[in-house]
Amino acid sequence: MTRLASSGLGLGLFATVCGAVPAFAQTTELAMTLPPTSEAVPLPMGLSHAEVLDGWQTKSGTRMAAIRITLDAGWKTYWRHPGDAGIPPSFNFKASSNLKDVKIYWPRPQVFMESGTRSIGYKDQMILPIELMPEDASQPIQLEADLDLGICHDICIPVSLDLAADLEGKGAQDAVITQALAAQPKKVPSTARCTIAPIRDGVRVTAQLPSDAAPDQVALFELPSQPVWVSDSQMSHQGNTLSATADLVPPNSEPFDLDPKDLRITVLDKTHAYEMDGCARM
């Protein structure tokens, strides 16, 4: 039996983070149970379906599954780095049973421009493979996944979902999950060179990156080791080099010591993506 519960989130935070989006829908509390049959249940506007895809057991004993969020036509949701006009999905698996650890895999997202503001995410559908490490590999995992995410069209709706599934890992490899795994940005050895300078409320990073000079390339900075807000990167091409600058602001809005080895940089264009960890200081 799979359970799906959905509710509106407080709009204050969402409106602050997504201020460039034209309008925000007022959501009401929704609570529902999805029965084991396929009978229809009410869902928030823009959200067509949400489910856990049961996958297979890997050679190491972990379970490969996926979270699939299906949106109405034209709607989108956000990547782990949402850009300057969005919030990243957040996950809570603490209510799960027989679960030791979770790793989320992120397929290559799209870049959207709205009212001069860049956002990063997925249109119509988001499939996130998740690798689950059980406490006891001989027993099923009772997965409880609480998700908070934003979905947007002409308006934005913050949504909270509770997905539950029993995962035995006895299935064959699922083509949908394997395709999503294959769609991740390509991991490449880092050849990035960076300058890091303090600013009033954080640090400013400028990276010199290898580039094929595609005019639609976007460089995204992340700091996996700690929570920071990251501005849209400002980019310019110089031959086969992409120069990208972004501000990283911690929760206390103060300058901090940034180890360039902690940076993760992803470069996207319309058809390709590569990702590198670390940046050599210039």
TrEMBL record:
<feature type="signal peptide">
    <location>
        <begin position="1"/>
        <end position="25"/>
    </location>
</feature>
<feature type="domain" description="Thiol:disulfide interchange protein DsbD N-terminal">
    <location>
        <begin position="59"/>
        <end position="160"/>
    </location>
</feature>
<keyword id="KW-0732">Signal</keyword>
<dbReference type="InterPro" id="IPR028250">
    <property type="entry name" value="DsbDN"/>
</dbReference>
<dbReference type="Pfam" id="PF11412">
    <property type="entry name" value="DsbD_N"/>
</dbReference>
<protein>
    <submittedName>
        <fullName>Protein-disulfide reductase DsbD domain-containing protein</fullName>
    </submittedName>
</protein>
